[in-house]
Each structure stands twice: as structure tokens, then as C-alpha cells.
Amino acid sequence: MDLRMYHGKRISVVVSRFAVQRVFFGVAAYEDDEDLGPVLRVSLQQEGGHIAGDPAFIVQEDAAAACLVADDRYGCDFCLYLGEEARTN
After folding, report:
1. Does residue 59 sit in helix, strand or coil?
2. Among 12, 30, 33, which residue's Cα sits nearest to residue 21?
3. Per-residue model confidence (pLDDT) at position 17
4. Does residue 19 carry a pLDDT above 80?
5. How far apart are CA 82 and CA 72, in angstroms?
């Protein structure tokens, strides 16, 4: 999976834990990390701009294939499903 194709795309991050789902939104940036290799950094945003502290989800290229799908369910280009229910969505 070539993560470069997601650079600049809007990504919703859906985190499922103990039957509770939280949805975060952000913009993806492709990066080549010295320790992790190719990664996708999803910098989280809220309406009106960035969130204080610039939180982000970082996904390695190998893991992205299992949890990143084309899905506009939350108004973004793609969804990144993380957590217990990641494979059922």
C-alpha cells in the first residue's frame, strides 16, 4: 500500500473500545519516519482549525492496509478504523 496517495486527504479516525465509538477528523500527511519507515500522520482538527497541542494518529504503512478504507460515512475521503471493531466496519 502506497501511503502517498492519502497525502492531503480528509480522514475520519474511528476508535472503538468497549462498545463505545469515538470519531476524530483530520488531514493526512505522508512522512518517511527514521524509525517507523513510511507513515501516515493524521493531524486532528476541529471546526475552525487545529486542536491545541496538535494531536495526531500515526499509522505505519504495513498496518494501514488493514484499517484504512475509502468511506465517506463521516464526511471525509477515507476512514481509519482502530480498535476492537476495526475489522467489522
Report:
1. strand
2. 12
3. 87
4. yes
5. 16
Residue 6's pLDDT is 93
Nearest-angstrom CA–CA distance, 30 and 6: 7
Contacts of 53 (CB under 8 A, 6+ apart): none
Contact 32, 41 (CB under 8 A): no
Residues 69 and 82: their CA atoms lie apart, in Å, by 11
pLDDT score of 2: 86
Per-domain residue ranges for the chain? 3-83
- Tell which residue, 27, 31, 33, 20, has the closest CA to residue 84: 20
Q: Which long-range CB contacts under 8 A does 42-47 form with residues at least 24 apart?
A: 42/11, 42/13, 42/80, 44/13
Mean pLDDT of 56-66: 86
Predicted TM-score (pTM) of this structure = 0.78
